[in-house]
Design brief:
The chain is α/β, with parallel strands linked by helices and 375 residues long. The protein has 12 helices and 17 strands. The chain is globular and about 65 Å long.
Length: 375
């Protein structure tokens, strides 16, 4: 294995920038022997790619993503473009590239399965960008669950609410069109994070009972100004039963007025409870029934060097980490999987397929009005 991994990134928007920052910083943050190199940036035109490459520190650029995925000097492809991802991912794999693809992996489950199979057959590392579990707080939460600090887990409540589409006069875009984003709207977009987090903490969901709603049924077309139908859900509510017997609920919305990054969860056990809120991502609320009754209550744990991965970013507790740091941890894990230093990769394309199957079960439950098993 070379001491360098040359990255090509497709897309220079919010996530493309986050990946670029992580590529530049991860080697120094974690002291890696194998360092990533920002080799090539691809966007929708040569001009925009040239600007993005200069701004984000890439050696080369192209206005054609096919040139990037076939370039012999690229080792890893990060797909940060909007859906659909299928062709980009499959061509990258066919050219022997390792892949990190942003979520949702696919427009529908069959595509996700196709991508997973292609990656396994080619023997490349394939990761999906469900980065929120990479926060030190959520890694610590998983440790508390695993070591029995909460006792037997009895319930889980997961929420991911934002208000980026709360204004009914915002023009329709790809997120609200079935042929581009799929049948699941908020359920697929925000729900993938909520489902992924529950999977990371508690394991697989066995069955779901779901309801969805399109709150703003029409929006203006950006070109004509005429109002056109929104084609997938603005919000979704799921009752869930996990394979391990835990029961719970998930709620997602892209029209939840006042909420900006409202990913949160509560895990209740017979001996304790933890509560996390992504808007306060460097703290965890913890209650233990084993504490002295005179001082018993939820305590706020400020995350610090005693918790997973935090110390690589900062030597002092309470200073916090940020969103881009979760992507840096994600890139670290990807590199470790490629070099063989971390044989078990999470979240892999197989984990992405699982998320798609839960979404499918929820959509089937909405159609049939009953509990539905995850495929």
């Amino acid at each position: 294995m070379s001491d360098r991994l040359r990255f090509g990134v497709i897309g220079a928007g919010f996530m493309g920038k986050a990946h670029a920052l992580a590529i530049h910083s991860v080697g120094a943050v974690f002291g890696l022997d194998t360092r990533p190199v920002a080799e090539m940036m691809a966007t929708s035109s040569d001009a925009s790619a040239a600007r993005a490459a200069q701004r984000l520190g890439f050696a080369r650029h192209t206005g054609d993503w096919r040139q990037l995925v076939s370039d012999p000097d690229i080792d890893v492809v990060s797909v940060c473009a909007p859906l659909p991802h299928r062709d980009m991912v499959l061509e990258a794999i066919a050219n022997g590239k390792h892949v990190l693809c942003e979520k949702p992996l696919a427009t529908h489950t069959d595509e996700a399965i196709e991508m997973q199979a292609a990656a396994e057959q080619a023997g490349v590392v394939a990761m999906v960008g469900l980065n929120y579990p990479k926060t030190p707080a959520s890694q610590f939460a998983r440790e508390l669950i695993a070591d029995g600090s909460l006792g037997e887990i009895v319930s889980f409540r997961g929420v991911h609410v934002e208000d980026f589409l709360a204004d009914p006069d915002l023009p329709i875009d790809w997120r609200m069109k079935r042929d581009e984003a799929g049948e699941a709207g908020a359920l697929g977009d925000l729900g993938s994070h909520c489902i992924g987090m529950s999977h990371w903490l508690l394991g697989s969901i066995r069955e779901v009972m779901a309801e969805t709603r399109i709150v703003h049924r029409e929006r203006p077309d950006g070109e004509t100004g005429q109002r056109v139908p929104v084609e997938n859900d603005d919000q979704a509510e799921l009752l869930v039963r996990f394979e391990n017997g835990v029961t719970g609920s998930l709620y997602v919305s892209r029209v939840a007025t006042g909420h900006k990054m409202g990913l949160s969860y509560e895990v209740v056990g017979t001996e304790g409870t933890i509560v996390f809120d992504q808007e306060r991502l460097s703290e965890l609320q913890f209650y233990s029934r084993r504490d002295d009754a005179r001082t018993q209550g939820f305590c706020r744990i400020p995350i610090g060097p005693a918790h997973p991965d935090y110390g690589a970013f900062c030597p002092a507790p309470g200073h916090g980490t940020g969103y881009n740091d979760t992507v840096t941890v994600e890139i670290r894990d990807l590199i470790a999987a490629i070099t063989g230093d971390q044989p078990k990769l999470w979240p892999s394309f197989a984990d992405a397929v699982y998320v798609h199957r839960v979404v499918d079960a929820a959509l089937a439950s909405v159609r049939d009005g009953r509990w539905t098993a995850v495929g």
